[in-house]
């Protein structure tokens, strides 16, 4: 009689176990795909929001200078009146380290009292063409901080260019926000410019240099090359023995691309937990089936 019981239970056990293993395998694959897609959307959304934030800040600063350039004091190149206006509205221009006004020859006076000539600057030549400009980042000779220069042309009532208004903005006003952005336990954001320099990164050893662009990781160098060229996308790379996922998107106003990255291990951890839970449920189901069969076959044998 026992042989009959085993003949019934053995194939059921084998088939149930195979079924659970197959279910676990497919469930793991589906779960991994779903969670990976979710994480890709999450990093992409974070990158998109950071790009929008940076574009908004740059547009706001440029808009403030355009308002300055439209004042009568600017149009008349009334340097003293212009600087007094800036001082009276200092709260409005608190994000700007130094504001300057220049004539068509490039001779300027700045809000910190300095004078000089900017005729050799790219942004000056653009202003003479009636174009606004945002410079590449540089290091301020006065403060030692990384800065960008934003400039707008001054137009008279006949739309003729009579000079320019420009300001220096501390880059940390942007990079501090980027560096504070997180995704999960290990996710972070960084910015690469068109020269491959990292101008925002939570780790100081990568800041304001091309260390990442020259990384030993081939996959990372490929990603950085795309970011240098202002490409947009999602990719995977290995860095410091960690597989990472990244979404990257260029900023409209300047030659920067923002990347949001996270450890792929964090994603896989959730998938593995789900797989283990499926296996546990499967084992419970198999035990339940075998227990039920045991009592059923016992009653049949009797």
Automatic annotation (TrEMBL):
One of the record's GO cellular component terms: plasma membrane
Lineage: superkingdom: Bacteria
Record-annotated Cache domain positions: 44-259
Keyword Membrane included in the entry's annotation: yes
Membrane topology: Multi-pass membrane protein
Gene3D superfamilies: PAS domain
Keywords for this protein: Cell membrane, Membrane, Transmembrane, Transmembrane helix
InterPro entries to which the protein is assigned, alphabetical: dCache_1, Sensor-like_sf
Record keyword RNA-binding present: no
Cellular localization per UniProt: Cell membrane
TM region(s), chain numbering: 12-31, 278-296
Protein name: Cache domain-containing protein
Species the sequence originates in: Anaeromicrobium sediminis
């Amino acid at each position: 009689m026992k042989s009959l019981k085993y003949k019934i239970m053995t194939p059921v056990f084998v088939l149930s176990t195979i079924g659970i293993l197959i279910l676990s395998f497919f469930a793991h694959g589906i779960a991994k795909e779903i969670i990976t897609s979710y994480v890709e959307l999450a990093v992409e959304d974070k990158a998109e929001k950071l790009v929008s934030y940076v574009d908004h800040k740059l547009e706001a600063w440029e808009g403030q200078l355009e308002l300055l350039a439209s004042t009568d004091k600017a149009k008349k190149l009334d340097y003293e009146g212009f600087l007094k206006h800036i001082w009276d509205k200092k709260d409005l221009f608190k994000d700007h380290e130094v504001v300057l006004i220049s004539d068509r020859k490039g001779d300027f006076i700045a809000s910190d009292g300095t004078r000089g000539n900017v005729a050799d600057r790219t942004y000056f030549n653009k202003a003479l063409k009636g174009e606004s400009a945002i410079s590449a980042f540089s290091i301020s000779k006065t403060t030692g901080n990384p800065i960008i220069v934003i400039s707008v042309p001054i137009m008279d009532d006949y739309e003729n260019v009579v000079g320019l208004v420009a300001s220096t903005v501390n880059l940390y006003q942007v990079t501090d926000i980027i560096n504070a952005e997180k995704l999960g336990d290990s996710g972070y954001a960084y910015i690469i410019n068109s020269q491959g320099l990292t101008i925002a990164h939570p780790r100081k050893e990568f800041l304001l240099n091309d260390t990442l662009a020259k990384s030993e990781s081939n996959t990372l160098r490929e990603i950085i090359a795309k970011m240098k060229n202002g490409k947009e996308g999602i990719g995977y790379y290995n860095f410091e023995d960690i597989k990472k996922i990244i979404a990257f998107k260029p900023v409209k106003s300047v030659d920067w691309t923002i990347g949001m990255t996270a450890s792929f291990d964090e994603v896989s951890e959730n998938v593995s937990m789900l797989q283990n839970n499926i296996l546990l449920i499967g084992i419970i189901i198999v035990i339940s089936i075998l227990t039920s069969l045991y009592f059923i076959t016992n009653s049949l044998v009797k």
